[in-house]
Structure formats: C-alpha cells, structure tokens
Design goal:
Number of strands: 4
Shape: globular
Structural class: mainly alpha
Strand order of the largest sheet: 1-2
Largest sheet: 2 strands, antiparallel
Order of helices and strands: EEHEEHHHHH
Helix content: 40-55%
Radius of gyration: 20 Å
Distance between the termini: 51 Å
Length: 178
C-alpha cells in the first residue's frame, strides 16, 4: 500500500515517515522530532508524557455513578448499555487505583482529560486506518476522528490557559511540585 490517495482519503503513509527509532512521525513534525531527539528532553517535564500522582479518595461522589446516571436518564437501551460499561470501567479503576474517580482527587483533571483524549484520538486513527486499509466504510470512523481532533485542540487551549509561559519561551508550564 503505497502513499496513495483513495477517494480523497489521506492514508498514513502520505503524512508520516518512519523515524530512526521505528516510530511514525507526521511529516510536518519531523523538525520538532529531530530537536527533541537531539536533547530537548526538558519539553517532556510538563507535557502529556508526564504521569500524574495517584488519586486520593475524598468525600466527593464517584463520577462514574454521576455519568452512568446521565446515560440512564436518556431513557433508552443504548444509554443503559453505556451506563453498564461505565460501571464496569469503575470496577476496573477501583481494582487498579483502590479509589473511584472523583473530583478534587489530587490530580490535574485537565491533564488527565488531555492524556485520555490523546489516546482516544490515536485509537480512532487506528480504526480509520484499518478501515481504509480493508476498504471498509470509514465514514463513522472519520467523523469520530475529526470530532476528537477538535476536542483535543479545545482541551489543549484550556491546558494553555492553566499553564505559565510556553515551550517557545523556554518555560513549559507551571511547576506542579509546589
């Protein structure tokens, strides 16, 4: 499958190239990749690559219960099914973190949201790529991917409002150790 356009679709090979480390890098990001690989590791100190501290339990509600109720309130089977999935994810989170996801849990909620959305966007792009590769209808996958990109950009703006300085100015965000 070469770098081709099929019915107006941009395939991964059209926009990315394999770097020395085997990772695919968007063509328009190659310069940034080279700079990072050349020693600008400090950029990672306040980016989505940095892990958050473990959550702490508190008196606030388990947000899974609130979100599940919101889906049940839709009054249809699809909403009820999603609510059941949310509760299953709550159980998974309880086993992993020993506390439910709650507001004010000691973590940076904007960073958590951003990290999860970045992952969701990558999964959506994998789905789109696999559908294109298999010549399946990819209209839903494309819609999901495009919507996620817009949401990621919006959350990134919120992140910027919460940060002090910027990468270009040498500062990469607020110091979370204080």
């Amino acid at each position: 499958m070469g770098g081709t356009m099929e019915s107006g679709k941009v395939l991964m090979c059209d926009v990315a190239k394999k770097a020395d480390d085997g990772e695919y890098i968007p063509l328009n990001m190659m310069g940034l990749h080279d700079k990072l690989m050349a020693g600008m590791r400090e950029v990672y100190t306040n980016t989505a690559a940095r892990p958050e501290p473990p959550p702490t339990n508190n008196e606030h509600p388990a947000i899974a219960d609130v979100v599940a109720a919101d889906f049940v309130a839709l009054g249809n089977l699809e909403g009820a099914a999603v609510a059941a999935d949310i509760m299953a994810r709550k159980a998974f989170g309880m086993a992993k973190y020993k506390t439910p996801l709650q507001p004010f849990n000691g973590r940076d909620v904007v960073m958590d949201l951003y990290q999860e959305l970045l992952d969701a966007t990558k999964y959506a792009r994998v789905l789109l790529y696999e559908n294109q590769y298999a010549a399946k209808d990819d209209s839903d996958a494309l819609d999901i991917y495009e919507q996620l990109k817009e949401i990621v950009l919006t959350v990134n703006k919120i992140r910027g409002k919460n940060a002090v300085g910027n990468c270009a100015g040498g500062q990469v965000g607020r110091d979370r150790t204080t």
